[in-house]
Amino acid sequence: MELRRFVKKDPILIISIILAALTLFVCPLDIVISHDYSRIMKTICILFCFLIIVEGLKECNALKKLAEKILIGKKTSLSLCFALVFLPFFTSMVFTNDVALITFVPFAIMILRTAHLECRIPVVLVLQTMAANIGSSLTPFGNPHNLYMFGLYEKYGFTLLEYEIALIPIVLVGALVLILLTMTIKKENIEFEIEKNNETTSKKKLLVILILFIISILTVIGVVPWILTTVIVAIVFALMMPRTFKTVNYGILLIFFFLFVFTNNIASIESISSAITHLTAMDPMLTIVGVSQFTSNVPSTILLEQFTMDWKAITVGADIGGFGTPIASMASVITLSLYLAEKDLNVKKYLTKYTIFNIVMLIALIPTFYLLVH
Question: Most exposed among 212, 225, 248, 251, judged by the fewest C-beta atoms under 10 Å?
Fold first, then answer.
């Protein structure tokens, strides 16, 4: 029963472990050992810093208070839904898309139930997922694959400015599409009250966490060594808020590691390597968008960046590739799992909205890449 509960709780982690284990039968041990694990450890450690910082902000009730302030005064279903959708859009830019959805999807369900708008839950959750994927595309630390790719800036020779110039058109067009899709929600007057959280927030702790957050950002852009930052963050939280270590989602970190092993082992197989080389030579951006539909954009990024020096195609393609199927991004899987955990909700309605809206987003973003980025 414990094993079944564990598998049900984190099926992506189990799948990633199985995939990594299966490749060990076809990939020689010396090749497995020879992989450059320093790259993935750097990404995992920086991601850990952001995850524990978010847990610290949760413990200080900072995110809940932020949501309360944004939602107070909303008088129509449309204005309420706009606020719920764009909460993860902006927060994912700094706290990653996965964390934004884990935080605000349950919050949105609670608010919509309070406002007697249960029928709006599927469309709002779909839009929240899309918003988190779009918003997180803007920053190097907004999602795991961006963090991984930006960590290779020395290999590809791009700057932070060049990185942002490549991503801004995608974010702007994606935000416009998001606004238009949200406006399809029927507008009606509502009355509801938000139950305010009266728990006190330690301003000193909050200040320390914000300082650690700034240090982590500086680490992403290469100003502060990642090992030093990891040690500092771990020590500070161990002394100040030790309980946060229990609430960090270590599954995300493990998934990243096992997918790294899987994709690098797969890339070592000559026949697969040859096929990928051929596809990426034709069109690396469309290749990663296509592969992401079946493997999600994190493993496709780790796999395909080895076969091309076109960092724009891989970075932007991975962000665009997060739209499409429900497994195209880890963020999409997180929302779907949270939705399925709720009672009396229409799964068919959710998947229908998800498919239609994601196709619209792909139709908008793919031409944007060729016209404004490439």
Answer: 225
Picking from 147, 54, 149, the residue whose alpha carbon sits closest to that of residue 99 is: 54
How far does Cα 331 stand from its chain's mean position? Answer: 5
CB contact at 8 A, 110 and 222: no
Q: Could you tell me if residue 340 is inside a domain?
A: yes
C-alpha distances (whole Å) from 365 to each of 89, 117, 323 are 17, 31, 10
| Domain membership of residue 131 as a residue range | 62-198+249-373
The residue whose two tokens read 């129509």 is 76
The answer to whether position 9 is within a domain reads: no
Are 256 and 144 within 8 A, CB to CB? yes
Q: Three-class SS of residue 189?
A: strand
308 with 350: CB under 8 angstroms?
A: no
The SS3 assignment for 10 reads coil
Q: What pLDDT digit, counting tens, does each position of 200-248 carry? A: 567 889 999 999 999 998 998 889 999 999 999 999 999 999 999 998 8
Q: Look up residue 370 and give its DSSP letter.
A: I
Element (H, E) at 18: helix 11-23
Residue 43 lies in a domain: no
Q: How many CA atoms lie within 13 A of 142 on its CB side?
A: 25
Asked if 373 contacts 316 with a C-beta cutoff of 8 angstroms, the reply is yes
pLDDT digits (tens, 9 = 90+) for 107-145: 888 888 888 888 899 999 999 999 999 999 999 999 989
Beta-bridge partners for 189 = 76
- Which pLDDT does position 200 carry in this prediction? 55
As for how many domains the chain has, the answer is 1
Give which of 233, 288, 317, 178 is closest to 52, Cα–Cα: 233
The reply to whether the predicted model has a pTM over 0.70 is: yes
Rounded distance between C-alpha atoms, residue 348 and residue 158, angstroms:
43
Instruction: Judge whether 1 lies within some domain.
Output: no
CB 40 within 8 A of CB 265: no
CA dist., res. 305 & res. 313, Å (int): 9
Question: What is the helix (H) or strand (E) element at residue 363, kind and residue range?
Answer: helix 347-368
